[in-house]
Amino acid sequence: MRSERRPFPEWAEYRRNSIWIYDVTHFHGCPKHAVFAVMDLVTRKWISELVSIEETSTQVQVAFLDALESEGLLELIEARQDQAPVGTFPFDAAVDVAPVLLAVSDNGPQMTSGSTREFMAMCAIAQHFGRPGTPTDQAWIESLFSHIKADWPHLDHPGSRGAARRARHRPPRIQHREPTRRNRLPHPHRRTRRPRPPHPCRSRTRATTRPLGPNHLPSTPIRQSQPPEPR
Question: Which candidate, 22, 71, 150, 201, has a CA 20 to 30 Å from the CA of 15?
Fold first, then answer.
């Protein structure tokens, strides 16, 4: 029986730069490269990404440092580190301060490693892990990766010119379309047009030969009728 999903902490507010989610994915065209991405869970903003041939805690730290710098949270983290007493970590019991943000991820080795935990603790970032074997707990970042691979297929198959051409001329999947005769819903009180039955005089079994014109001469001579002989 699958366990229930663990809820987020009470201090994590549903606002911008409060809950982040990150993960790593691969593309079939270059399977030896890993792509790390950090996204804001509330605003669905794609904050930072990193392409590397390794999947370690170092790549997680670099991706988070770029995300923190782009969102202007490094100064807040440095001020939080200066306020902490000497010889304590931001998450110790002696420090009664809420973390800067919550980082949601799966149970990958680069997320649960000791180096990643130390880096998150030094930056006053709390970690939240999903259930093992349950990717729906990270549905936000999984949806981002699936949209990238579906809307831009040339990234997953870089050698395919047809995929790149279709992606260049393909409209975005999420867009607003004005109602037309094709995509509008039928009105419940509107009479739908039914196909008319074929007219009997216009059936397909009608002869398709063209009528003879006045200048048309038959191929065989016509025998002229002669008057009867008198008795």
Answer: 150
